[in-house]
Amino acid sequence: MPVFTPLQVIKLIDLAKKNRIAPLYLFIGPYEISYEKAKEIYKVLLERGATLEVFDLRDKEHKKEFLKTKGYQEGLFGFRTIYLVIGGEEITQAKAEEILKALKERSQLFSWFILFENIQESHPLYEFALEKGAIIPFHTKKKEDLLESELLLTLKEYQLHMDKKTASLFISLVGDDYHHFRNELEKLVLYALDDRTITEEKLLEVIVPLEEKAFYLIGDSLLTQSPERTYRMISALLDAKREPGEILGYLYKYFKKLQIFKDFLKENPELEKENTYTHFSKEWQKLKEDPLKEIPKILADSHPYALFSMKRHLEKIDSLEPFFAELFKAEWALKREFQPPQRVFQNFVFNVWAKINASSLKKAA
After folding, report:
1. What is the Rg, in whole angstroms, of the alpha carbon atoms belonging to the chain?
2. What is the pLDDT of residues 101-139, one digit of tens each?
3. Could you give the CA distance from residue 62 to residue 294 in angstroms, rounded to a whole number?
4. How much is the pTM?
5. Containing H/E element for 232?
6. Whose CA, among 122, 132, 138, 272, lies 20 to 30 Å from 159?
7. Strand-by-strand arrangement of the 81-86 sheet
8. Backbone dihedral angles phi then psi of residue 136, each to the nearest 5 degrees
């Protein structure tokens, strides 16, 4: 078995179902993703009676127990034993040779799933896996790219359609937490099985963004949706016992981010001129990879789709000062005048909406 791309994990699962099982599976990249992918393969073996032993070498006790283990026993009734090892970097040279000796002598009895964040190609485990096992590298891509690859594979598996912009929006909202990503993707697939096409509107109806992303949606809604819809979103958060000051804080962060990005675009006109998401994301990546370019952390940590949306919002707005003035008025009304939060946010949303429309009309003129 050669080197497999992340998209080819499904092929390894099919091979395992056909009893074509590698003695050594080497996963290279973020542990969180590698672990989930490894589990998809060895789950097939567990269903056939294999036993599983797990060693997380990041844990001192696990590492101590692992290094003491001598000899590897076959499972009950001759079934295969699976050894899952997280933190392959902690495996000593002597231990690697011991593992390989057991594999060469009785490879039909064991399967090793070893997870590395990084590994040299000269490592004996890598060399063995290249010849007789399977290597699945994730480390050559950014985490968001790995998630995008998995999204595309899942869409293909279920014969669903989602355009690139909607896919980017999905990843930007669920964040890079792999478990949350998988949960929301599975829910979205079930929702879309009837008509096969996932639009931005359907996506927003179904997914639950990570907390900070949910607050981002309010800021985005202020600039794109009706004031009634935005107010309903804020009202739902208040009903869920979210603190008014917390909501206001996130709105301030959103507009502050808009201001920082507006200044950044002025300094980087090559990014500002890009009017399609594909070209914008390529130019953004080029800037991020430039060692001489200083990018504010609040922007560097953002998904490019979120920034592209912000760029479109900024095209409709002359100045952000009126919005900061409305935030100050809302904070004063909450903290000094003790007005009911529902009334404060209702006034805030409709005042902001009026200012956006005034700014848009001014630009159009």
Report:
1. 26
2. 888 877 667 889 999 999 999 999 999 999 999 999 986
3. 42
4. 0.55
5. helix 227-239
6. 138
7. 51-56, 81-86, 110-116, 24-28, 134-137
8. -125, 95
